[in-house]
Design brief:
Layout: E1 14-15, H1 49-52, E2 59-60, E3 76-78, E4 81-83, H2 100-115, E5 120-124, H3 129-143, H4 145-151, E6 165-170, H5 186-194, E7 200-202, H6 209-212, E8 220-223, H7 226-234, H8 239-243
Parallel strand pairs: 1-2
Antiparallel strand pairs: 3-4, 5-6, 6-8, 7-8
Helix pairs in contact: 3-4
Bound molecules: zinc ion.
Residues 25-26, 124, 160, 165, 167, 220 line the site of zinc ion.
């Protein structure tokens, strides 16, 4: 079986544009997009070899989104984990609200942080599809689609629609909200080192831009539960790598 796995069998997405293909998942971010192309392995699994040959050469646009892809009727779960990414968008109707378990975990995280002198605020958590439509359209109107794609997720593609994504900042340092300056602060470093104990992972780590499809965001955390979060942290993985979809 193993001899069927060949390097040459990996299919890669075509790149419509190099610049701007790796984009932020949050709004109001201040970073410039990376110029690295998105390179996607469609499958590692020899069992899907036959199917793989039928996969059309998916093209991505300048925003890193698959051209012609429509929002699905159902949200995508893999091994019990809800996935929201440029490859796996959410239905417009998916509206769970903020996840109570994630909120509870965030409270516990904050209680532990305060013992070390840090106080966090989750300044953006659940965001509905309709709200993302409003925001995205306003950005497009103001700055044009190309520019808007650099700092705002398109409706259906934001992980904030899952209710499991928490944008975290330090109380009193609002200037660093949604800014990678946060990751360089003592509070940001504490969070990066400890969030997994409470079930949160840094969703878009530095150096994993081609895996997640997003630039590094030191403030955007995703709740996956302590067991998975600890494993992902220990292995220095992303959710995609943990689920074997990259
Ligand atoms: Zn975010």
């Amino acid at each position: 079986m193993k001899k069927h796995v060949k390097k040459s069998s990996f299919a890669f997405l075509s790149i419509a544009a190099l610049a701007g293909s790796i984009l932020a998942g949050c709004n109001d971010i201040k970073q410039e997009p990376s110029d690295k192309p998105v390179q996607k392995e469609v499958s590692h699994d020899p069992a899907t070899e036959k199917k793989k040959t039928k996969i059309k050469d998916e093209k991505v646009d300048a925003g890193g989104y698959i051209i012609g892809k429509k929002l699905p009727k159902k949200a995508t779960y893999m091994q019990g984990f809800l996935v929201a990414s440029k490859q796996y968008p959410l239905p417009a109707s998916y509206a769970p609200g903020e996840n109570p378990e994630a909120r509870d975990a965030f409270s516990k995280l904050n209680a532990a942080a305060s013992l070390d002198g840090f106080h966090f605020d989750a300044f953006s958590t659940y965001r509905s599809y309709d709200r993302q439509v409003e925001l995205y359209n306003a950005y497009v109107k103001r700055d044009g689609k190309k520019a808007a794609d650099r700092y705002s997720a398109r409706p259906g593609y934001s992980e904030h629609q899952t209710g499991l994504a928490f944008d975290i900042g330090e109380v009193g340092n609002e200037a660093a909200y949604a800014d990678n300056a946060f990751g360089k602060t003592e509070a940001g470093k504490w969070l990066a080192k400890n969030a997994h104990k409470y079930g949160f992972i840094m969703r878009y780590p530095k150096g994993k831009e081609t895996v997640t499809g997003y630039m590094h965001e030191s403030w955007h955390f995703r709740y996956v539960g302590p067991k998975a979060a600890k494993e992902i942290y220990k292995k220095n993985e992303t959710l995609e790598e943990y689920l074997g979809i990259k």
